[in-house]
Design goal:
The protein has helices spanning about 30-40, 45-65, 70-85, 90-105, 110-140, 170-175, 195-205, 220-225, 250-260, 290-295, 335-345; strands at about 5, 10-15, 25-30, 150-155, 185, 210-215, 230, 235-240, 245, 265, 270-275, 295, 300, 310-315, 320-325, 330. The chain is α/β, with parallel strands linked by helices and about 350 residues long. It has a 7-stranded mixed β-sheet with strand order 6-5-4-7-10-15-16, sandwiched between helices. Helix 6 links the parallel strand 4 and strand 5 (about 185). Its EC number is 5.3.1.23.
Length: about 350
Amino acid sequence: MKPIVWDKGCLRLLDQTKLPLEEKIIECRDYQSVADAIREMRVRGAPAIGAAAAYGMVIGARGIDAGDKKQWFKELEKVAETLKNTRPTAVNLTWAVDRMLKKAEENKHLGIRELQDILENEAVKIAREDVESNYAIGRFGNTLVPERARILTHCNAGALATVGYGTALGIVRAAHASGKDIHVFAGETRPFLQGARLTVWELMKEGIEVTLITDNMAGYVMAKGMVDLVIVGADRIASNGDVANKIGTYSLAVLAKENNIPFYVAAPLSTIDMSLSSGEEIPIEERAPDEVLYIQGRAIAPEGVKVFNPAFDITPNSLITAIITDKGVIKEPYDKNLKALFSDGTRGNN
């Protein structure tokens, strides 16, 4: 499953707004179309939009019509701002674009053609690193998954949300591949239905047992003893371990705590923002009312009703059992242990 494919200057994306009814590929040949795809959630998931934005920088860099290098850098900054402004919460987006800008700046003594090639190589590297980090998350996370585990997940943190394999679903895949007889409960994830449309689709393709539930059934299945652990992804993690993830994650964490169920967050280091002291500083994206008012183009609420549609919520570190990264499993105290993780020179959002 390859939701992101780079093909000779063209970024091919699996249009996730069409799934599971249609597997449609869209082709992005200019950076504006990449920005549109991110904004419209045709490509989604923090690591995936980071990689897509990196390729958007490459397309933008090759499309700049500038008479000199100074002007070229000025236009490249505009490309970067356009891409970064598409979605504010997922930190991987800003991280990837800033990494591309830094790479260009480090090589500013070279010619424009050479800079374009360097940026393409860097984007390919970002994409490759994401897949490698997901496999590492899967390996570390699998050590926490018991035999015959019943796992509850939320939204989609699988191959579709990354360049490949997945974070939370990477752990599920690793457990399945190791022979553990696991079963997944996937919450539908209103209002965009990423769980129903995407997570279930992925797991069924992999032959992994999955049961779809509505979001408001989570407490019931936990109370009935039907869930052994919860694993979710993340869009941004503050330095104290507070987590921004798809709206509804906080509710699941509260329910897991009440029912003495481990609550794990899976994310690469690029999702950790060491510049933020707590989740209160994470910007929360608010999306269009139509996502709540309509499903597949059909109205489901009275016309004219007011809508509040935050895309994410904040789960405080006190509700999180562990954060599973590509460098290992991090537990409390998160502020101390996350800082130690980055003190060895590891690259991330610091």
